[in-house]
Amino acid sequence: MSQLERDIHYMKMAMDMAKKAEEKGEVPVGAVLVKDNEVISAGFNFCIGLHDPSAHAEMQCLRQAGKIIENYRLLDTTLYVTLEPCAMCAGAMVHSRVSRLVFGTHDDKTGAAGTVVDLVRHPAFNHQLEVTSGILALECAEQLSQFFKRRRKEKKALRQQQKLASLQDLSE
Q: Rounded distance, CA 100 to CA 91, Å?
């Protein structure tokens, strides 16, 4: 199996994790950590459910991996994530010594692996990651886009219901 085939395989797993986030009403981002072609851990966004702003997919995945291997250093690992990591997650990857980052779609607002800033390859840091981007980018972007489209539609419907309810209250 080629590196590209492996990247696609594990990105599909990360997309499955993103589906789990969406099922819980979370922004659909998923992550999978791999070492020696074996999945060590997986995570998905769970900020809302845990009331934790740091419960991003990457952070969930890194925390779980540290417990499993009983080490905060995640040497010789590859992190697959459906959306380009933010600064918090990128920093955690640098500190945990993840070797390689593979992400699906770029984040034009908070991407910290090259789009807005590049923390994972910053020359001042004592560790830099190898980065591969764009693996299943269209599919990852569509997963996010459909979620936000549905959420906007739901909010609009709720506002209309509230408006109708207040009009009915006025007419009574």
A: 13
How many other C-beta atoms lie within 10 A of the C-beta of residue 162?
10
**32 with 80: CB under 8 angstroms?**
yes
113: β partners: 118
Rounded Cα gap, residues 170 and 29, in angstroms? 43
* Residue 97 CB contacts under 8 Å (≥ 6 apart), including other chains: 73, 74, 75, 127
Instruction: Give, in degrees to the nearest 5, the angle at Cα 61 between 63 and 50.
Output: 75
Structure tokens given for 129: 């990651």
The per-residue pLDDT for range 48-81, each reduced to its tens digit, is: 999 999 999 999 999 999 999 999 999 999 999 9
Cα atoms in the Cβ-side hemisphere of radius 13 Å centred on 146: 11
Active site residues: 58
- Whether 159 shows a pLDDT value over 90: the answer reads no
Q: How many CB atoms lie within 10 A of CB 47?
A: 18
